[in-house]
Specification:
This protein is an alpha+beta fold and 293 residues long. It folds into two domains: 102 residues, 2-Layer Sandwich (Phosphorylase Kinase, domain 1), CATH 3.30.200; 178 residues, ATP-grasp fold, B domain (D-amino Acid Aminotransferase, Chain A, domain 1), CATH 3.30.470. Strands 8, 9, 12, 13, 14, 15 and 16 form a seven-stranded antiparallel beta sheet that branches. A five-stranded antiparallel beta sheet has the order 1-2-3-7-6, sandwiched between helices. Helix 2 packs parallel to helix 8 and helix 7 runs antiparallel to helix 8. The radius of gyration is 19 Å and the shape is globular.
């Protein structure tokens, strides 16, 4: 795999993110989703074989079905429609890549929470706030908020992202842009929550990223994948408990049980954790887009 990425690097200017490899084609980008896994903002030495294809399939499906809410950077995931210079890499790119518009990235992660869980639950128990936003409701773990809340964070290329308030986010950019990405994030969440609930999935929380092309703001990166969202099994959901999830929570739970300090270097993942995590990724992929993939 890495040899093939290296060959691509000879052809294109490239950047390696935590999970995705981004290749610059001038006015377009080729995004290749690897099998790497990150948790607590640290990349692990053990890949999840086939994870990249699963994530790419979900992201492409979501981009194709949410453009009525907000335009996005997706162009195509059909390798035969890629530039000629990439055709030699078809076997590697097939299924795990997409061609997208090149944007000026807006450096915040737009997190929307419909239910209180994870780090938000921990913060709420200590401070009665989430991301600095005071919460007046008396909540139990995994309970739904009266309405979804927007809790942005900084976007860090290395290390941990930092939670900021909406007002802090607005201070970093034009007010109209801040309002647009907040409102579209909430709208995307509400649409996805309604769609997924019909399929037996609760979308507990998720994050979106945006970029600018000229004067237009577009949805970018990925959307509604197990790496960017917390999916719960509706049939097992109960307020006051941490529900069964279809994402990398199984990895986070294992890591928390080991006492790892969440700092590099990351420990190796046992084979059974890798297998169970992949099973969860496949399940949510099949529930979101069908099993004919």
């Amino acid at each position: 795999m890495y040899k093939q990425i290296g060959n691509l690097d000879i052809v294109l200017s490239s950047h390696q993110g935590k999970v995705r490899d981004i290749h610059d084609l001038g006015d377009k980008l080729l995004i290749v989703t690897s099998d790497r896994i990150s948790a607590f903002d640290v990349v692990f030495p053990d890949p999840l074989p086939g994870k990249g294809v699963i994530l790419n399939q979900i992201a492409a499906h979501i981009f194709k079905t949410t453009s009525h809410i907000v335009p996005n950077h997706f162009i195509t995931d059909r390798v035969e429609e890629y530039p000629e210079q990439l055709q030699a890499f078809k076997d590697y790119l097939e299924g795990r890549s997409m061609l997208v518009k090149k944007l000026r990235v807006i450096p915040v992660e737009c997190i929307v929470r419909g239910y209180i869980s994870g780090s938000a639950w921990s913060e709420y128990q200590k401070t009665r706030s989430i991301g600095g936003l005071p919460i007046e409701e008396d909540l139990k773990e995994s309970q739904a908020f009266a309405r979804p809340i927007f809790t942005p964070s900084t976007k860090a290329s290395e290390g941990h992202d930092l939670n900021i308030s909406y007002n802090q986010m607005r201070e970093r950019m034009d007010t109209n842009i801040a309002e647009f990405i907040r409102d579209r994030s909430l709208e995307l969440y509400s649409w996805a929550h309604a769609q997924l609930r019909e399929k037996g999935i609760l979308l507990a929380d998720t994050k979106f990223e945006f970029g600018a092309l000229g004067n237009e703001i577009l949805l970018a990166d990925e959307a509604l994948t197990p790496d960017s969202s917390r999916f719960w099994d509706l049939s097992q959901y109960q307020v006051g408990q941490s529900p069964a999830s279809f994402d990398k929570q199984i990895v986070r739970d294992y890591l928390s049980s080991t006492g790892w300090n969440k700092q590099p270097p990351a420990p190796h993942l046992p084979d059974d954790i890798v297998r169970k995590a992949l099973d969860k990724y496949r399940q949510i992929r099949d529930m979101i887009i069908g099993d004919n993939t």
